[in-house]
Amino acid sequence: MTDAPLEDRSERRRHPSSSPASALRFAHPSERIFASLLDLYGIEWVYEPIEFPLRWSEDGVRSAGFRPDFWLPGLGCFVELTTADQRLVTRKNAKVRRLRELYPEVDVQIVYQRDFNALIERHGIAVPGTSAA
Questions:
Q1: Residue 129 counted as domain residue
Q2: pLDDT tens-digit map of 38-89
Q3: CATH code at 73?
Q4: Residue of 62, 30, 27 lying closest to 48 (CA atoms)
Q5: Does some domain include residue 128?
Q6: Is residue 1 part of a domain?
Q7: Domain range for residue 55?
Q8: What tens digit of pLDDT does each residue of 80-129 get?
Q9: CA-based end-to-end distance of the chain
Q10: For the residues of 34-59, what is the DSSP string, one character each?
Q11: Of 10, 28, 33, 69, which residue is 20 to 30 A from 46 by alpha carbon distance?
Q12: How far is Cα 128 from Cα 133, in angstroms, rounded to an integer?
Protein backbone atom coordinates (compact mmCIF):
# COMPACT_ATOMS: atom_id res chain seq x y z
CA MET A 1 0.00 0.00 0.00
CA THR A 2 1.27 3.48 -0.77
CA ASP A 3 0.94 6.68 1.22
CA ALA A 4 0.22 8.68 -1.93
CA PRO A 5 -3.16 10.45 -2.02
CA LEU A 6 -5.86 8.61 -3.94
CA GLU A 7 -5.87 11.11 -6.80
CA ASP A 8 -2.11 10.62 -7.29
CA ARG A 9 -2.49 6.82 -7.41
CA SER A 10 -5.36 6.97 -9.89
CA GLU A 11 -3.40 9.34 -12.15
CA ARG A 12 -0.52 6.87 -12.33
CA ARG A 13 -2.93 4.05 -13.17
CA ARG A 14 -4.54 5.88 -16.05
CA HIS A 15 -5.15 3.47 -18.92
CA PRO A 16 -2.90 4.17 -21.94
CA SER A 17 -5.90 4.51 -24.24
CA SER A 18 -7.03 7.59 -22.30
CA SER A 19 -3.73 9.45 -22.72
CA PRO A 20 -3.23 12.25 -25.25
CA ALA A 21 -0.88 9.99 -27.24
CA SER A 22 -3.76 7.67 -28.08
CA ALA A 23 -5.73 10.45 -29.79
CA LEU A 24 -3.16 11.57 -32.39
CA ARG A 25 -1.81 10.24 -35.63
CA PHE A 26 1.96 10.08 -35.56
CA ALA A 27 4.35 9.84 -38.49
CA HIS A 28 6.10 6.84 -36.91
CA PRO A 29 5.27 4.28 -34.18
CA SER A 30 8.30 5.39 -32.15
CA GLU A 31 6.72 8.83 -31.75
CA ARG A 32 3.57 7.28 -30.25
CA ILE A 33 5.68 5.28 -27.81
CA PHE A 34 7.67 8.37 -26.83
CA ALA A 35 4.47 10.39 -26.36
CA SER A 36 3.01 7.62 -24.21
CA LEU A 37 6.10 7.68 -22.01
CA LEU A 38 5.79 11.45 -21.66
CA ASP A 39 2.15 10.93 -20.67
CA LEU A 40 3.17 8.28 -18.15
CA TYR A 41 5.47 10.77 -16.42
CA GLY A 42 3.00 13.64 -16.65
CA ILE A 43 5.19 15.66 -19.01
CA GLU A 44 3.13 18.04 -21.13
CA TRP A 45 3.91 17.83 -24.84
CA VAL A 46 2.72 19.15 -28.19
CA TYR A 47 3.32 17.16 -31.37
CA GLU A 48 5.03 18.99 -34.25
CA PRO A 49 3.67 22.43 -33.33
CA ILE A 50 5.95 24.58 -35.48
CA GLU A 51 8.13 24.45 -38.55
CA PHE A 52 11.27 26.58 -38.46
CA PRO A 53 12.32 28.03 -41.82
CA LEU A 54 15.94 27.08 -42.54
CA ARG A 55 16.59 28.24 -46.10
CA TRP A 56 15.04 30.67 -48.56
CA SER A 57 15.31 31.02 -52.32
CA GLU A 58 16.71 34.22 -53.82
CA ASP A 59 13.18 35.59 -54.15
CA GLY A 60 12.50 35.04 -50.43
CA VAL A 61 10.39 31.89 -50.66
CA ARG A 62 11.09 29.34 -47.94
CA SER A 63 12.88 26.38 -49.51
CA ALA A 64 13.69 24.25 -46.43
CA GLY A 65 12.36 23.89 -42.94
CA PHE A 66 12.56 21.74 -39.85
CA ARG A 67 9.65 20.61 -37.69
CA PRO A 68 10.83 19.00 -34.42
CA ASP A 69 8.69 16.08 -33.26
CA PHE A 70 7.76 17.38 -29.82
CA TRP A 71 7.58 20.64 -27.88
CA LEU A 72 7.83 20.18 -24.10
CA PRO A 73 6.49 23.47 -22.72
CA GLY A 74 7.28 22.66 -19.09
CA LEU A 75 10.91 22.03 -19.99
CA GLY A 76 11.13 24.73 -22.64
CA CYS A 77 12.66 22.48 -25.27
CA PHE A 78 11.94 20.60 -28.46
CA VAL A 79 12.69 16.90 -28.89
CA GLU A 80 13.52 15.24 -32.19
CA LEU A 81 13.57 11.44 -32.55
CA THR A 82 15.86 10.11 -35.26
CA THR A 83 16.50 6.84 -37.11
CA ALA A 84 19.34 4.37 -37.26
CA ASP A 85 19.73 5.03 -41.00
CA GLN A 86 22.99 7.00 -41.00
CA ARG A 87 22.06 8.92 -44.15
CA LEU A 88 18.93 10.26 -42.45
CA VAL A 89 20.72 10.91 -39.15
CA THR A 90 23.36 12.97 -40.97
CA ARG A 91 20.67 15.00 -42.76
CA LYS A 92 18.72 15.58 -39.55
CA ASN A 93 21.86 16.60 -37.64
CA ALA A 94 22.60 19.14 -40.38
CA LYS A 95 19.09 20.57 -40.03
CA VAL A 96 19.47 20.84 -36.26
CA ARG A 97 22.85 22.59 -36.68
CA ARG A 98 21.27 25.05 -39.12
CA LEU A 99 18.34 25.63 -36.73
CA ARG A 100 20.77 26.37 -33.90
CA GLU A 101 22.65 28.85 -36.12
CA LEU A 102 19.48 30.73 -37.09
CA TYR A 103 17.61 30.40 -33.78
CA PRO A 104 20.21 30.15 -30.98
CA GLU A 105 17.51 30.67 -28.34
CA VAL A 106 15.71 27.46 -29.39
CA ASP A 107 16.63 24.34 -27.39
CA VAL A 108 16.38 21.15 -29.48
CA GLN A 109 17.36 17.80 -28.00
CA ILE A 110 17.92 14.82 -30.31
CA VAL A 111 16.99 11.34 -29.13
CA TYR A 112 19.09 8.93 -31.18
CA GLN A 113 18.11 5.32 -31.93
CA ARG A 114 20.36 3.82 -29.23
CA ASP A 115 18.93 6.21 -26.61
CA PHE A 116 15.37 5.46 -27.69
CA ASN A 117 16.04 1.71 -27.55
CA ALA A 118 17.54 2.04 -24.07
CA LEU A 119 14.52 4.06 -22.95
CA ILE A 120 11.95 1.53 -24.14
CA GLU A 121 14.03 -1.37 -22.82
CA ARG A 122 14.20 0.29 -19.40
CA HIS A 123 10.39 0.42 -19.44
CA GLY A 124 10.03 -3.19 -20.61
CA ILE A 125 8.55 -2.23 -23.96
CA ALA A 126 9.30 -4.72 -26.71
CA VAL A 127 8.77 -3.23 -30.14
CA PRO A 128 10.24 -5.52 -32.82
CA GLY A 129 11.53 -3.69 -35.86
CA THR A 130 10.74 -0.21 -34.54
CA SER A 131 13.21 2.53 -35.24
CA ALA A 132 12.85 6.12 -34.14
CA ALA A 133 11.45 8.51 -36.75
A1: no
A2: 998 999 999 999 999 999 999 999 999 999 999 999 999 999 998 667 777 8
A3: 3.40.960
A4: 27
A5: no
A6: no
A7: 6-122
A8: 998 667 777 888 999 999 999 999 999 999 999 889 989 888 888 876 55
A9: 39
A10: HHHHHHHTT---EES---EEEEE-TT
A11: 10
A12: 15
